[in-house]
Design goal:
single chain; 292 residues; alpha/beta; Pantoate--beta-alanine Ligase, Chain: A,domain 2; 5-stranded antiparallel beta sheet; 42% helix; globular
Amino acid sequence: MKRLDSRSRGLALLLVMWALFIMTFAIMGLLSLLKVDIGNASGMERVALASSLAFAGVTMGRNADFPVTGKPEKQAFPDGGRLEVIAISENSKLNVNHLLGSGDRDTLRALFRIWGLRDVEADTVLDCLLDYVEPGGNRRPNGAKAPQYRAAGRAAPPGRLFLSIDEMASVLNFELVSNLKENWREYFTIYGDGTLDLTTASPDVIRAVCRVGESSARAIQQGGSGLQDMDAVRMVMGLTEKEFETLQGQLSLGGKVRRVRSTGFFAQAKRTIEVIYQTDGSTAAILEWREW
């Protein structure tokens, strides 16, 4: 896939921002026709304005030319409206269903160890995760099945893969992770093919998948969208072509699943829309849509 140079990306973003300006002015004009006094808008009207900006930001973030960097693009508008839009590759997270389904304990163990879990704690969480998603009553040495969940006053594990990342918190002993890493949800996904998109991956995830040190992981993260091909990644890691062969199949520079988070502000009102969608270049299918 051809990657845009910085000048082309900058021009594309300007065009997207210009389109957003037009959309925002259209929203303001509509409110004017509806006799809404923007300066003296009520609380509900301000929330509606913030929601309209957030929706416009989703449209902007889903544009193919919008930069997928994990950094917020900010814009201020007349009459007090503001907008922040962040786009990341959902493939830059660990697909927990893919890892558990393929029996890859090593990547998850590496991540848990990076976060400070001891070996026995990491193995306990891993056994419990696997016992949760696998059907049957056979319990792993450090795992938990229906009797252990009943004793803890919890519903029995369903014996299927996770339907959401939040569901991971239902796994017995997962508090060993959540107590150490409050934002653990940001590192996992249930979407994608299991390959890791390095363009917006965190250093912790890069370390866990690539088995590299912190300095190499941060060098890859800083390269981000500027990495042109896998040979550039290999050189940053300091690996030979032979050493990189096995690892290369687990990595990518660009994914088909993206997450866009758009937050609109108007006076004291704030509304956020978060969308996860999958694209094949010509069409996009929405996988999740949340508003708050």
